[in-house]
Write a structure and sequence with these properties.
The complex is a heterodimer of chains A (347) and B (260).
Chain A lengths: L10 H20 L7 H11 L11 H35 L12 H14 L11 H22 L6 H26 L4 H9 L8 H19 L1 H7 L3 H6 L4 H23 L5 H13 L3 H25 L8 H20 L4
Helix pairs in contact in A: 1-3, 1-13, 3-8, 3-11, 3-12, 3-13, 4-5, 4-6, 4-7, 4-11, 5-6, 5-11, 8-11, 12-13, 12-14, 13-14
Chain B lengths: L1 E12 L2 E12 L3 E5 L6 H8 L6 E6 L2 E2 L5 H5 L2 E4 L11 H6 L14 H13 L15 H14 L4 E5 L7 H18 L2 E5 L3 H7 L2 E6 L2 E6 L1 H4 L2 H8 L3 E4 L6 E4 L7
Parallel strand pairs in B: 3-8, 3-9, 6-7, 7-8
Antiparallel strand pairs in B: 1-2, 1-4, 4-5, 9-10, 11-12
Helix pairs in contact in B: 4-5
The chains are: A mainly alpha (347), B alpha/beta (260).
């Protein structure tokens, strides 16, 4: 007799995700102020592979546009989108709250404060070889999450999840207040701060990518490895405990990985909202509610969505650039409503 | 061999004692059902045996103190069927039953083919094989209960805790469920510790009954010893007639004032 298989990835879902990533990336490389041909770009990419020698017919300047401007930005978009989407999905799983987003525990407010401080202090030129804004944003985000965790785990009578979420709200408010205060006192820098808050995938070569790669790789791996445990958390803390799950440990490991990864990407991308909520929910509606499916697909589709959104941000009002957070919400919200309507009542 | 031992078990919620010195023994392969009025502490007793509430006094499962065992180890000895299980939305029955294998997997480990076989056969043992691909939320009360018991069975634990396993079921499904559990107990040598509201059914299936009231054991023994007019009247505040039957005492409620 044919035995039923448990919820899991179907190969064509993964293939669709990979195709989405490839299509978005190719569009990101081809489109822009300097128009390049698809064939030329593909040949140039092949030429970049080791032991392959193809002549793309592109000039030095065009090659530089691909390798030093567009490709780093595409790769950064893939990483930021994958990380924010997956972190959001992970938070929704461990807190069993569909509205949880990667900024739940104060990451955004902390990063905003850190970045504002760096901008106001005139550290824009960098600390050593590194750009000061991402560094300070990263430090601020980590400080906020650590503070949230300290305050939340000391919460007496409330259940630990509630106290952690409430602590996040308090810490975020505090950091936002301090950030607003600092910003008000230095109103000449308000424009720079404003750009950070709305998010932007700006790159200067590969530095940003290199900066966040270790965090993104480690954090995504950890979250993907515990994804099966998140399904078990769906039955509630007590039942999950009776199944033999160490609920506290699953939650701690997931929250740490999601927060660290979010802090890293936010430091280079600014505060891009929406992706962490909409991408995992869209995948849940289309492919089922198991985290074994949601999280890996979110890595792919989150990345593809971010690159596509960045493309719109770059091109829609050329030569001006729209903040990418505006684009993600502007495109994502109607799309999500469409999915919500079309899947209603099918399960 | 005794599978479950409680000695002087005490549990309080916010300083209010819920279990107040309970002594209880369940022999290996036996079936003990805890009865008692609402709020007597029946569910708390099961949760204490499952290591889910902090308790003082002694609670041992298969010869080892519940406190001393790690979550995973304990879950491989004791499986709980909760009174009101939380059903994750959109989850298929097979995936739900597979959650029972959690205690057999490492922290980062995924289930293997053997676990899927185990879960599938747990469903089949409860005559629920065809439900594997159904969404648990959409099942009827009887089907859902069988899937929840299948999850507990998939844990592969020798001790089964059933908290009001028949509450949501009609009389036919109640009997069917209890017959299934009894058959599995006989086949696999499982030990069953249950709580039940239906006193007649409780007496018919358990080897021993324990009656709790206000966190204390007020009667224990065979069904005929525990299910007396006096006990049910005194501790439940109910007016009943207990009829002797070859299958065990039958407890029938009688409208007040009509007791001949």
């Amino acid at each position: 007799m044919h035995r039923r298989q448990p919820a899991g990835l179907r190969w064509w879902w993964v293939a669709t995700g990979v195709a989405a990533v490839a299509a978005a990336s190719l569009a990101g490389l081809v489109m822009g102020p300097a128009s390049l041909g698809v064939g030329e770009v593909l040949r140039e990419l092949f030429d970049g592979l080791p032991l392959v020698d193809v002549d793309s017919g592109l000039g030095v300047r065009q090659k530089a546009i691909i390798w030093e401007i567009r490709l780093p930005r595409v790769v950064l978009g893939l990483m930021v989108g994958a990380m924010l989407g997956t972190a959001g999905g992970a938070y929704q799983g461990v807190f069993r709250n569909p509205l949880a987003d990667p900024y739940l525990l104060g990451v955004a407010a902390g990063a905003g404060f850190g970045a504002t401080t760096a901008i106001v202090a005139g550290l824009g030129d960098g600390i050593g070889v590194f750009d000061a804004v991402p560094l300070m944003a990263f430090a601020g985000a980590l400080t906020a999450v650590a503070l949230t965790y300290l305050v939340g785990s000391a919460g007496g009578r409330l259940d630990p999840v509630t106290s952690l979420v409430l602590a996040g709200v308090a810490v975020a408010s505090f950091f936002t207040a301090v950030q607003t205060f600092v910003q008000q006192r230095n109103s000449e820098t308000i424009r720079q701060v404003y750009f950070f808050v709305l998010g932007q995938l700006r790159t200067a070569g590969w530095n940003e990518v290199l900066l966040i790669t270790p965090y993104v790789v480690v954090c995504l791996t950890v979250i993907l490895l515990v994804r099966r445990r998140m399904d078990a958390l769906g039955v509630g803390d007590e039942e999950a405990g009776s199944l033999g799950l160490d609920v506290r440990r699953v939650r701690l490991v997931t929250v740490l990985a999601a927060s660290l990864g979010t802090a890293a990407v936010v430091s280079v991308s600014g505060l891009i909202g929406f992706v962490g909520i909409i991408v995992p929910h869209t995948i849940r509606l289309l492919f089922g509610s198991s985290y074994r499916v949601i999280l890996p697909l979110t890595v792919l589709f989150g990345g593809a969505f971010m690159v596509a959104a960045d493309l719109v941000a770059r091109l829609a009002l050329q030569p001006a650039e729209i903040p990418i957070g505006v684009v993600t919400a502007f495109l994502g919200a109607p799309f999500f409503v469409l999915i919500l309507r079309s899947t209603r009542g099918t399960r | 061999m005794t599978a479950v031992v409680c000695r002087g078990l005490r549990v309080s919620y916010s300083g209010v004692p819920v279990l107040d010195g309970v002594d209880l023994e369940v022999p290996a392969g036996g079936w003990v059902t805890v009865v008692g009025p609402n709020g007597a502490g029946k569910s708390t007793l099961l949760r204490a045996v499952g290591g889910l509430v902090s308790a003082s006094g002694k609670v041992e499962v298969l010869g080892e103190s519940v406190d001393s065992l790690a979550r995973r180890v304990l879950a491989r000895r004791v499986a709980l069927v909760p009174q009101e299980p939380v059903i994750p939305s959109g989850m298929l029955a097979l995936d739900y039953v597979l959650l029972g294998r959690t205690a057999h997997l490492g922290f980062f480990e995924a289930e293997k083919e053997a676990d899927i076989v185990f879960a599938t056969s747990a469903l089949e043992d409860l005559d629920a094989g065809p439900l594997a691909g159904r969404v648990v939320e959409t099942l009827s009360g009887g089907e859902r209960q069988r899937v929840v018991v299948a999850r507990a069975l998939a844990q592969g634990s020798p001790v089964l805790l059933l908290d009001e396993p028949t509450t949501a079921l009609d009389i036919g499904h109640q009997q069917e469920m209890l017959d299934l559990v009894d058959r599995l107990r006989a086949e696999r040598g499982l030990t069953v510790l249950a709580t039940m509201h239906d006193l007649t059914l409780a007496g018919q299936y358990a080897d021993q009954l324990v009656m709790l009231d206000a966190g204390q054991v007020v009667a224990a023994g065979s069904a005929t010893e525990v299910l007396t007019n006096e006990n049910v009247g005194r501790f439940y505040g109910a007016q009943v007639r207990v009829i002797d039957d070859p299958s065990g005492p039958i407890v029938v409620p009688v409208r007040r004032g009509n007791l001949a």
